[in-house]
Amino acid sequence: xxxxxxxxxxxxxxxxxxxxxxxxxxxxxxxxxxxxxxxxxxxxxxxxxxxxxxxxxxxxxxxxxxxxxxxxxxxxxxxxxxxxxxxxxxxxxxxxxxxxxxxxxxxxxxxxxxxxxxxxxxxxxxxxxxxxxxxxxxxxxxxxxxxxxxxxxxxxxxxxxxxxxxxxxxxxxxxxxxxxxxxxxxxxxxxxxxxxxxxxxxxxxxxxxxxxxxxxxxxxxxxxxxxxxxxxxxxxxxxxxxxxxxxxxxxxxxxxxxxxxxxxxxxxxxxxxxxxxxxxxxxxxxxxxxxxxxxxxxxxxxxxxxxxxxxxxxxxxxxxxxxxxxxxxxxxxxxxxxxxxxxxxxxxxxxxxxxxxxxxxxxxxxxxxxxxxxxxxxxxxxxxxxxxxxxxxxxxxxxxxxxxxxxxxxxxxxxxxxxxxxxxxxxxxxxxxxxxxxxxxxxxxxxxxxxxxxxxxxxxxxxxxxxxxxxxxxxxxxxxxxxxxxxxxxxxxxxxxxxxxxxxxxxxxxxxxxxxxxxxxxxxxxxxxxxxxxxxxxxxxxxxxxxxxxxxxxxxxxxxxxxxxxxxxxxxxxxxxxxxxxxxxxxxxxxxxxxxxxxxxxxxxxx
Length: 607
Prior knowledge:
There is one protein chain. The protein is mostly helical. 72% of the residues lie in helices and 1% in strands. The chain has helices spanning 5-24, 26-29, 33-38, 45-56, 59-72, 87-100, 107-115, 120-155, 158-161, 174-224, 255-262, 267-283, 290-296, 301-332, 350-358, 363-399, 405-427, 433-444, 446-457, 463-483, 492-508, 515-525, 532-542, 551-577, 580-600, and strands at residues 340-341, 344-345. Strands 1-2 form a two-stranded antiparallel ribbon. A hairpin with a 2-residue loop joins β1 and β2. α24 runs antiparallel to α25. The model is unreliable at 35-39 (pLDDT under 50).
């Protein structure tokens, strides 16, 4: 076994603490539905921000991003726009406020504030968003599951524990075995303690990960003294042309095959596709997962915006300190890393392999605890979101609206167990982290975007259009990977077009939403967009002007925020690489952006 006794003790103490946390908070979570799913909407915004950042600091994503930094260098800062990471800026500037004003419990419940409670289209729209939420939650559970298994396999070789296991496991399924074990542990504390347990566990995890990230960055910077990175020309430059033009032949030749397999060679086209998809995905608002649940858990709309803004500030510098630290160590000592797998060289193993080689005893245990916590936090947050949809939007809505707190508690437990098991089963069929990540962010979310952009910005869009738009997007998203042997992102425009046509045809095939519902929605949310008929009706009725005139300011703030987000990403990378002039320039730009946003965003926040 690669771990010392001290490291094992540190990891075990952390795991036991998390399980105890679930037991301790069990009684508090059982008070009512809102206490379990949203922490009673009493959790401070900064704790929710730390929790949300912690959920995004997941083990699978971090392994993937270390691989990106290793292969693509500073150009890797753009590839997470696949999510897109800058959706947090849209949320920060205005969308979190719009969403939180609804006072809903889940994204499906939010639809009733937009489309009403009555009608076949309303019921269908409600059903389709629940289906989408559950599919995406299962995808994220599988995504975390496969990354964790690869990670643990490095530290606990199968041959060291196989004599104690009463069954045999094929080499290719060893990561899945480890994934199952830790998924069960996570399920225990997440299901018992609800949202409050998850948030407190996430805050603890964030502190651990921050310490570990700073130490890794320090080790990498120290090892780099007196050495030069053997990397291709362009690796140290974040900017790019139409083609990637990174040739690893004279350095680590097998990396060229990795670039080819990823499909990022025509980087200019890839970037434009990411930007096109990313802007629409951001305009659509958060997908119905843990991110949306954290926004709905805040005390007020202002707090929701602050929470979303805090995420980038506390996540990116810390996470990229760790990412660039491991990438630098991986390049400096590539020949010493064991990246072999059943299918050849696996670059997603750089992170755990580097820990084995370079992290001292004791700190290895702390880092492992943090990275295991990263998996557990993401898994738990996603599980909580899935439970919210099953209990609130299926069980209470269609089966037992008058269920007692005990019945709601039992259904939360049962749904959590079922969803976790389904996520694990799905994870058994996943090839690697990158493949399922590409499917989630490019294919599945491609089917989500059109309907969810229109719901915010066009008054005539109705529940019927929402249902058919979502259905027209989700079905091809599930089918296209079977027929298209290409990067999922490249058929996003086709998915978007099919979904958009479904939205338009479905909308005009049914009458508009009830006028009173639309007026109440406009009064509450006050969105900008194509709302003129509703705005005029509300203003005539209320005798006051309600027009949202913030579109220009919001867009200006978003551009500044995205540049600031890139600066926060580059800051630790330049720091580790000791690139002084780019570092000073990045800090200067960041200071200017903070000063401007204080005037144009922070001081303008309102509930």
